[in-house]
Design brief:
Blueprint (H helix, E strand, L loop, with lengths): L2 E5 L5 H8 L3 E6 L3 H10 L4 E3 L17 E4 L17 H6 L6 H12 L3 E6 L6 H13 L6 E6 L10 E6 L15 H5 L20 H8 L6 E6 L5 E7 L15 E2 L9 H6 L13 H9 L4 H17 L1
Parallel strand pairs: 1-2, 1-4, 2-3, 4-5, 9-10
Antiparallel strand pairs: 5-7, 6-7, 8-9
């Protein structure tokens, strides 16, 4: 059984995909308290180190690991961040959030796994950052680095999502669906919000003013617009189109139900990321939504795990 360490494990989307494909998650590192509690309840067999990754040493983690997976924060790199630093290298070497990417590199260098995979936004593959990261990996003994761009919707995820997976191997999983899974298909079978049969499925309270605004929105329209880096406009509080996949689910994403005048519950949003209904999220409501949106979509993680398994067998 191949072994895995998950750095910046969050709520465990990346881990779950690998676990489903027969890997043993030996250890995880996470220091956000709600995510620590969430991970522990969903992966009781995994040793979770609840500690700032900057203070983690190789001695605290299992030895002879096959795969290290990591999902460091993307705020420093994403174009949706209006405060993103202008110079690309400042995002990696100057922004405290971006520098956590280098902590992942440091631990990979100490653990020396056969394969590493770091998930982040496509902007991390900008030429200057890409070159800098390739140099960092050469320094720790990985001469070849691939920036694998994958779309979650090609692997059964009911929401659109483009992510780069930095690795010392090429990751080219075969698409698992002929067409994207729709919102309608993803939400099918859920009981009404408030049901005790499903966790994380209660309504989010919103003001009467917002309710009136929501009632006027047609499918595909957004209540909120905001500017990201370089002036690009982003949308939030979008009323979903039932027969299409959802827009990208981000940490701050809130979606309006296709035909009901309310926000999606955490459980409904988790389904848009491929989480099973028995995967619970702990902490306050905002933290739960954030953990869902910051996860690696489970179907995508599973497809990557399958692809990596084939590579491991050849090593």
């Amino acid at each position: 059984m191949p072994t895995v360490i998950d750095l910046f494990s969050g709520a465990g989307g990346f881990s779950l995909g690998f676990k489903r494909r027969g890997y043993f998650i030996s250890a995880a590192v996470e220091n956000f308290p709600p995510a620590v509690r969430t991970y522990r309840v969903n992966f009781p067999e995994t040793e979770l180190l609840a500690k700032d990754v900057k203070k983690v040493s190789a001695e605290e983690l299992p030895k002879e690991i096959d795969v290290v997976i990591a999902g460091p924060p993307c705020e420093a790199f994403t174009a949706s961040n209006p405060k993103r630093r202008k110079r690309p290298l400042d995002r990696l070497y100057g922004d405290p959030s971006g520098m956590l990417m280098l902590e992942a590199v440091r631990l990979i260098g100490l653990l020396k796994p056969k394969i590493f995979i770091i998930e982040n936004v496509p902007e991390v593959a900008a030429p200057v950052i890409r070159s800098a990261l390739a140099k960092e990996f050469r320094r720790i003994g990985y001469p070849k680095v691939y920036f694998n761009l994958l779309r979650a919707e090609n692997f059964g995820c009911p929401s659109l999502r483009r992510r780069v997976f930095i690795s010392n191997v090429e990751i080219r999983p075969k698409p698992t669906v002929v067409r994207p899974v729709t919102v309608r298909e993803a939400l099918k079978g859920l009981p009404p919000p408030g049901s005790v049969k499903v966790s994380n499925h209660r309504l989010t309270s919103i003001s009467r003013r917002r309710l009136l605004q929501i009632a006027r929105l047609r499918q595909g329209e957004a209540l909120v617009r905001y500017r990201g880096a370089e002036g690009k406009t982003y949308r939030n509080w979008v009323r979903l189109i039932p027969d299409k996949p959802a827009p990208p689910v981000l940490g701050n994403s809130r979606f309006i139900h296709p035909w009901e005048d309310r926000l999606l519950t955490v459980r409904e949003q988790a389904r848009l990321m491929g989480f099973p209904d028995d995967h619970v999220f702990l902490g306050g409501l905002k933290n739960q939504y954030d953990m869902v949106g910051e996860a690696v979509p489970v179907p995508l993680a599973e497809a990557i795990a399958e692809s990596v398994l084939e590579t491991l067998e050849k090593l």
